[in-house]
Amino acid sequence: MNITDLISGSLGSQATEGISEKLGIDKNQTQWVVSAAIPLMISALNYNAQKSPEKAQGIQQAIDSKSSAGILENLTGLFNQGPTEDEDKMVNHIFGKNTENVKESLSEKSGISMGKIGGILALLAPLIMAYIGKQKQSQNQDDNSSGGGIGDLLGNILGGGNSSSSSGGIGDLIGSVLAGGNNQQNQPTNSQPNISGGLGDLVGQFFDQKNDKGTKGSILDSLAGMFGK
Questions:
Q1: CA triplet 199, 39, 171: central angle to 5 degrees?
Q2: pTM for this prediction
Q3: Of 84, 99, 157, 164, whose CB has the highest number of CB atoms within 10 Å?
């Protein structure tokens, strides 16, 4: 159970192909956006799940409302009918006040219009929710313990282990910057992102409002590069 499966595995390849054809975008450009956007989306969901039990329950209900088997087994149908208004609303729920910032950054770096970036995100949203739902079902079948909540599941998909760990990790880092705080230590605004901290650090730096457009673009390149073929 790892985010790499969703991005560069067979599922990710099908998604890239379908989105490229649906929106009329170059396949390589689409692959870049998919590779950068999926970590941002799952990380934002992870942060939202940590905010309150009510938020976590809302995400859980959204996941349960998606037929993971139906969506994942019929990606052609998903891409043929989308992007829809409901899927666009899903993106807004995931990113909240950061939605336009994410679209603008992805657009400027990829050269794809913001409108089509919005379409890519809208098509990815139900796919991601279905994938998480499938992982949840698998976890429930394989795990005899009571296990953790949706936040733990999302943390595991991100490769960060238990997101509520006392050592910090993805949940704490992203929670700080999305909430308006900053736990980066006096990082110059024009510096290159430090990728040594892994996926959590990269996503956290992207959402840090103190970082300029050039730095955010470099972070997106690093995210996409982590999962590139």
A1: 60
A2: 0.80
A3: 157
61: which 2 tokens?
């209900």
Question: Residue 45 burial (CB < 10 Å; 0-12/13-18/19+)?
Answer: buried
- Express each pLDDT in 136-173 by its tens digit: 887 775 554 444 688 788 888 877 433 333 233 444 43
Tokens of 227: 């999962």
d(CA 174, CA 160): 12
Mean predicted lDDT score pLDDT of the chain: 78
Rounded Cα gap, residues 140 and 207, in angstroms? 32
Q: Residues near 181 by Cβ (< 8 Å), separated by ≥ 6?
A: none
What are the two backbone dihedrals, phi and then psi, of residue 192, each rounded to the nearest 5 degrees?
Answer: -75, 145
Give the range with max mean pLDDT: 45-54, 111-120, 162-171, 190-199: 111-120
